[in-house]
Amino acid sequence: MSATPVAIRLGEPLKERVRALAGHKNRPMHWLMREAIEQYVTREEQRASFHQDTLDAWRAYQETGLHVTGDEVVAWLNSWGEENELPPPIPHT
Known about the structure:
Blueprint: H1 12-25, H2 29-64, H3 70-78
Helix pairs in contact: 1-2
């Protein structure tokens, strides 16, 4: 994988903070910035995916009316690891 340089303008206070953190971690500034951008992009992609999953679940509920209640889920989760662990709740209307 080849990398292409990208310029970014940082205000002096932020630049100094990045420099200090990079020094603390014994890493170059560009490594720290690349790592931060990678983590941010990954987090935002996951957030967008979660949002889409939520919209899809809402549409499915509107179409079918199938659901489980919060109490059903809590009872199931509370039984995890117990001798009489409950099966997952079955969606119903």
